[in-house]
Amino acid sequence: MIGEAIEIGKLLAASNLIDGASGNMSYREGDKIIITKRGVCLDNLSEKSFVAVDIDEMSEEASSDLIVHQEIYKNTDYKVVLHCHVVYNVVLSFK
């Protein structure tokens, strides 16, 4: 699954949908959340870009949005969460 997450990051960047530096992603694996680490760029992900965290655990390594991802997983049956700032939406917000 990490391989797929890496490819999604590359696809988003190649499509010019993200600026590369913004956003984070995670997926559920049993009782664990595999989430991007704090400060990684979605367009340059590797296996080392992710950390495994229990659904109720805090982590200094994990994305600063870990709590949001945890709450989504606790309250839904979602398997994946992708949070990014799509370039076109950001441009519109500055108008």
UniProtKB/TrEMBL annotation:
Molecular function via GO: aldehyde-lyase activity; metal ion binding
Highest taxon in the source lineage: Archaea
One BP annotation, GO: pentose catabolic process
Name this protein carries in UniProt: Fructose-bisphosphate aldolase
A Pfam cross-reference name: Aldolase_II
Keywords: Lyase, Metal-binding
Alphabetized InterPro entries for the sequence: Aldolase_class_II_sugar_metab (IPR050197), Aldolase_II/adducin_N (IPR001303), Aldolase_II/adducin_N_sf (IPR036409)
Organism of this sequence: Thermoproteota archaeon
Span of domain Class II aldolase/adducin N-terminal: 5-93
GO cellular component terms, semicolon-separated: cytosol
